[in-house]
Amino acid sequence: MTAFDQMHTGVGMIFLPKDDGLLHQAQTVIMNIFKQEGLQVLGWRSVPVDTSVVGYYITETMPNVMQLFVQISKEENVDDIERELFICRKLIERAAALDTWGNELYFCSLSNQIIVYKGMLRSEVLCRFYLDLQNGLYKSPFAIYHRRYSTNTSLRWRLAQPMRFLGLNGVINTIQWNLNWMQSRETSLKSPVWHGRENEVRPFGNPKACDSANLDIAAELLIRSDRTPEEALMLLVPEAYKNHPTLMIKYPEIIDFYDYYKGRMEAWDGPALLLFW
Q1: DSSP helix/strand/coil, 66
Q2: Are 158 and 143 in contact (CB under 8 A)?
Q3: Which residues contact 145 (CB under 8 A, 6 or more apart)?
Q4: pLDDT by residue (tens digit) across 132-189?
Q5: Does residue 224 contact residue 82 with C-beta atoms inside 8 Å?
Q6: From CA 216, how far away is CA 268, in angstroms rounded?
Q7: Closest Cα to residue 224, out of 89, 80, 107, 72?
Q8: CATH architecture observed for domain 1-143
Q9: Where are the domains positioned within the chain?
């Protein structure tokens, strides 16, 4: 990435249609939306993979895995860049829902900070499948790996974990309740960080997605609305804080936090383990 300003560059890791005609349509829509948002598309890259290490079914169901590089010309901080990329992704997803290729589009990530490699892959195969992860030039301050598939839906590449912000073990027992409340409160989202564009980041949930994906959607919304990741997950998945001796004695402010937010966000109950970044 030496040819352009890395600080103002976003990388999209995208699952796209295999059919050349549908791929071209999808790429055209994506590039047009970035252009209308004032972002420059720097180019596309087919992510190199080794399909010899996976079975027939995985190869047959595998999407077209590509990376997209875009540049934001405005002088913005990291949070503003991430928020701009988030809005672009939501606009693209909304446009995709109107086309025949919409079900074949999925952003694993679109970020200035994170690239998500995922798929229907066994643990030992991930690095062998994605050749990028074997390249000595590929460097990252840290990496998080989480292996799990959704247990309440059929296996699909997009539902492999991790999600965009978190990896989850367990099941959200209250998922329908949570989705209903998120939908009922969509119109009440107001924050100066969105500069009047709140309507463009709706809807806030996806009934067709798994429970992990929907918790991820909710966490992303809160983080992009200027919450810290820790605050967002405490708000969404509060611990059993009532009559907790350690919290009562040492951290009463945490109890105050949970008491304040319990009337604003219903708990997403059920996770046994959450990884987030």
Answers
A1: strand
A2: no
A3: 123, 126, 162
A4: 999 999 888 888 888 776 555 567 899 888 899 998 888 899 999 999 999 888 888 8
A5: yes
A6: 11
A7: 80
A8: 2-Layer Sandwich (3.30)
A9: 1-143, 152-277
